[in-house]
Amino acid sequence: NAGVMQNPRHLVRRRGQEARLRCSPMKGHSHVYWYRQLPEEGLKFMVYLQKENIIDESGMPKERFSAEFPKEGPSILRIQQVVRGDSAAYFCASSPEAGGGNQPQHFGDGTRLSIL
Amino acid sequence: DQQVKQNSPSLSVQEGRISILNCDYTNSMFDYFLWYKKYPAEGPTFLISISSIKDKNEDGRFTVFLNKSAKHLSLHIVPSQPGDSAVYFCAARGSGSARQLTFGSGTQLTVLP
Questions:
Q1: Within an 8 Å CB–CB cutoff, is residue A63 touching chain B?
Q2: Total Cβ atoms within 10 A of residue B105
Q3: Which of B24, B26, B40, B75 has its CA 20 to 30 A from that of A19?
Q4: Do B44 and A104 touch (CB under 8 A)?
Q5: Out of A4, A42, A45, whose CB is closest to B105?
């Protein structure tokens, strides 16, 4: 999965703390997607961003979760006041155009978030 | 509401034989379908895709078939190799503003040497 960089790879937080997950898209890609994978399940869409804009956040919980993709720097997925149910693998994907066009979304290796 | 379903959580195949992974969907608005392979502790890696206007796409050992009337697609791997052992996810692209991918729950393929 060279190209889409996510960090940290593993993140441990206690309940009530904040978690920040970072994603740098592939070079030349300006569209970023965040997905969450719970154990034994497929990936579920959370949010779609372009530079400085949230295009679709229909899959993101209304409270405690936020995302940004600033003009400079990586996309950030922020989870405030984490709870045990937030434990999951969070994947970022990027594409060169909206919806991927005829190009597939390319994924990073994910951040495994564990809540104690 | 699971719009993309992979009903077989696991599949074992002998090396050299054909692997067939299946996927069903319910949303007729999906216009593009993809298969991803995933190893533990890594992200999904794109394998092959097919547009809804086609019924077959082939790339080397991998062929994807789409049956729109049955809302069914399948991935054929032939010949199967031990390195193909991984979880395979079927994904469909929707018509919403994000054109985000909707994933199935995956099938663990094990290719036995």
A1: no
A2: 18
A3: B40
A4: no
A5: A42
Residues with Cβ within 8 Å of B86's Cβ and at least 6 positions away in sequence, in order, are B37, B38, B39, B108, B109
User: What pLDDT shows up at residue A28?
Assistant: 85
The reply to whether omega before A8 is within 30° of 0 (cis) is yes
In the block, residue with structure tokens 């099938």: B107
Share of chain A above pLDDT 70, in %: 94
Buried b (16+ CB within 10 A) or exposed e, A7-37: eeeebebeeeeebebbbbbbeebebbbbbbb
**pLDDT score for B98:** 62
In the structure, how many helices (H) and strands (E) does chain A have? 0, 11
Looking at residue B20, its pLDDT comes to 98
* pLDDT band (50, 70, 90) for residue B44: very high
CA atoms within 13 A on the CB side of A27: 2
- State how far the Cα of B30 lies from the Cα of B32, in Å rounded to an integer: 6
A contacts of B32 (beta carbons < 8 Å): 100, 102
What pLDDT is stored for residue A2 in this prediction?
56
